[in-house]
Amino acid sequence: MGIFKIFSRDKKEKLDEGLEKTKSSVFSKLSKAVAGKSKVDDEVLDNLEEVLISSDVGVNTTLKIIERIEARVAKDKYLGTDELNRILKEEITGLLDESNSGDATEFTTPADKKPYVIMVVGVNGVGKTTTIGKLAYQFKKAGKSVVLGAADTFRAAAVEQLKIWAQRVDVPIVEQGMNADPASVAFDTLQSAVKRGADVVLIDTAGRLHNKVNLMNELTKIKRVMDKIIPDAPHEVLLVLDGSTGQNAIEQARQFTKATEVTALALTKIDGTAKGGVVIGISDEFKIPVKYIGVGEGMEHLQVFNRHEFVDSLFSND
Q1: Could you tell me which residue ranges the SRP54-type proteins GTP-binding domain spans (predicted)?
Q2: Distance of alpha carbon 129 from alpha carbon 133, whole angstroms
Q3: Which CA distances in Å does 157 have to 149, 190, 197?
């Protein structure tokens, strides 16, 4: 299975840098796992299982990967530990293939859906509003016109933060301040986007997981109101997760997928952590495509997730 070299060198370097902490952690554990061994035997597989679980890949996903490698060991009879890297790369890419379709590299939206409406969900503190700002920047850079909707009206800081991003990226924002009805903000945002002939709409929503029933009702109401203006809106429900929280991010994904239908994931703060393996676990466990990955602070550090490039950056021991 070849790795598709489709990222620009600059993007690839940023991805490599962003995954450096995870990569060095995984490699130091891997080298210990195979120390003194020339072939992949039961002990190496046990050690490998420990490496993957401690790298936040998650238990269920780790067991799947180990099973796949066991099947190859049984088939090839003799697999050298020097080949383990390549095999890990192939099997993890294969696993990610099952929940991520296509090999996107650019910020695009379907031509037949204009405006393309993205409702962004996630708990406070995961980088949700920042991700919206960076998405607006990337879509605008790709030649798309963008409108922001400040429907996270539960916190004054969220509305103010989004306004700052709108100014920074120079895109219009629709807001009614704190404590406004989120559905009303969403309604106005879509009306404004249609009037402007916008390409993309990004709607920020509140992330109050401790009161799941309210959250569920609120998101359902926002969706219902949007559908009145643009049938089938939102076209995408993007859940933002903080990759540096590891297993906690998996738990948040579990809670949000119960509260609303999530169709895509964005994982932030991957660069500041050795827990990058969580991308593999979340993608596999929820069968929801990882669409965006944050590998640094800058606006250009939000990348379209490409599974082949991700695995290549993670397991290339150059």
Answers
A1: 289-302
A2: 6
A3: 14, 23, 29
Binding site for GTP, residues?
122-129, 204-208, 268-271
CA–CA distance, 277 with 22 (Å, rounded to integer): 7
Encoded amino acid at 117, one letter? V
Beta-bridge partner residues of 237: 119
| pTM score, whole prediction | 0.91
If we measure between CA atoms, which residue out of 1, 5, 20, 35 comes closest to residue 314?
20
Tens-digit pLDDT profile for residues 48-86: 999 899 888 989 999 999 999 999 888 876 677 778 888
> What does the pLDDT look like over 108-150, one tens digit per residue?
888 889 999 999 999 888 999 999 999 999 999 999 999 999 9
* Rounded Cα distance, 179 and 202, in Å: 19
Binding site residue list: 122-129, 204-208, 268-271
